[in-house]
Amino acid sequence: MTVRSVPTQKKSIDWITFSLYLSLVFIGWLMIFAAEYKEGENSLFSLSSSIGKQSIWMGIAFAILLLVLNVDWKFWRNFAFILYALSMLLLVLVLVFGIEVNGARSWFSIFGFTLQPAEFAKFSTCLAMASYLSGPTPKLKNPRDIFVVMGLFLAPMLLIILQPDPGSALVFLSFFILLYREGLSPLLYVFGLTAAAVFILALLLSPLSVMAFLCLAVIVILVQNLDYRLYWNLSVLTLMVATAVAISQGLEFQILIVNSILMIFFVLFQAVKGKMQLAVSTFVAFLIYSGLSFATDYTFHNVLEPHHQDRINVWLHPEKCDPQGPLYNVLLSKMAIGSGGLSGKGYLEGTLTKLNYVPEQSTDFIFCTVGEEQGFVGSLMIIGLFVFLIIRIVDIAERQRLNFFRHYAYGVAGILFFHFVINIGMTMGLLPIIGIPLPFISYGGSALLGFTFMIGVLLKFDSQRYLN
């Protein structure tokens, strides 16, 4: 009986995931229509309007989905690296032949339509990562494999940064979710998260102030194996308060000297006690993170373009921003979301949306349209659909028999998670504005096609799981 039931299971796609995809795409179409709505000026298939172009992109996306579901799954495994190489080539060519939009040379212009290679690079990189990790020998067990697998997503990141489009580049960091699932050392994540914390702190404070707090962090680690640990921790806490007060008074250099002397004392004390590895590792970490703080400060002031600096200042230093300038987008977005209240103003009844107050409201800031017209209830439903979709994809990943299928599914889940959290976070002012779309909802053909490829291949893989 079990054997006879398998053929039926072979042919079945995951209808829940498919329904979630269709629901989000259709909701996106409705929201784009609302964001661009002008009474008497809307044509569903006119190339002169955003909703017309999106209608055509939706038709192409559905055709691609149908095609993908009818392609043998082995095609994607056998041609994973060829597709990856093609996407890398496109990322190089767009630097030379692409058109510039909003300060970034990230787009090809083809017969009135624009295509962004970075969106397709996410899909091909996902395939390449899955293919490499599912090789005949275990991966992530030696430095060479770790170097290669990280190079697979760092290479497109670098090319996208050169456009420059740091927002799209950051999405490739989502592959660390896949690597964590496949056994990458947690110590690397501890190092990465602490580096990210230092990076953000360096954007908030001066490098000298960051170093002063890093000294205290080293001292906290070094006193944990001493007698009267509670006493030492309370002493360090008092010193932290003193450090904060000194920095607020412009005495960061003086407090850095004091904290450095105390740190060196505890480092030498641990070395003398025979804890040489602990003493050396903490001091080296202090030097690395101190260097990172200076590098962050230099990069922010001397490397980043002014509009990228503005995006970070809007997030961390809104008091430095002109409310009529860089801060305008976030203020109006938050105002639109807040004005929706519990149940919203109603479809096509959003006043801020209708009057086009919020820039980029059909692309990066599409969620403010949801918030204004559908309110808290509608916003919560959109968030719920995304959470359900991501959880469903993780569930699909865990039930796969082939490692290649599982790796790919986790890659897709990570990409969707990053896009979803960052886009909604930036529209509410919780995260920096980095200019990435809300999957399936935001206007844009490249993103819609890229995510459709991801979901289509995922559904195809899952439908074939009983064959293996």
In words, what does this structure look like?
With 468 residues, this protein is mostly helical. The chain has two domains: 2-188 and 380-467, no CATH class; 205-304, no CATH class. Helices cover 70% and strands 3% of the residues. A three-stranded antiparallel beta sheet has the order 1-2-3, covered by helices on one side. A hairpin with a 2-residue loop joins strand 2 and strand 3. Helix 3 packs parallel to helix 20 and helix 6 (117-133) packs antiparallel against helix 19. The longest helix has 33 residues, at 366-398. Mean pLDDT is 88; it is low at 1-9.
The total count of helices amounts to: 20
Describe the main β-sheet briefly.
3 strands, antiparallel
Give start-end ranges of low-pLDDT stretches.
1-9
**Quaternary organization:** single chain
How much β-strand is present in the residues? under 5%
Average predicted confidence as pLDDT:
88
- Counting helices, strands and paired strands, the structural category is mainly alpha
Q: What's the shape?
A: globular
Cα end-to-end separation: 19 Å
Helix content: over 70%
Order of helical and strand elements: HHHHHEEEHHHHHHHHHHHHHHH
Rg calculated over all Cα atoms: 25 Å
Question: What strand order characterises the main sheet?
Answer: 1-2-3
Number of domains: 2
The number of distinct β-strands equals: 3
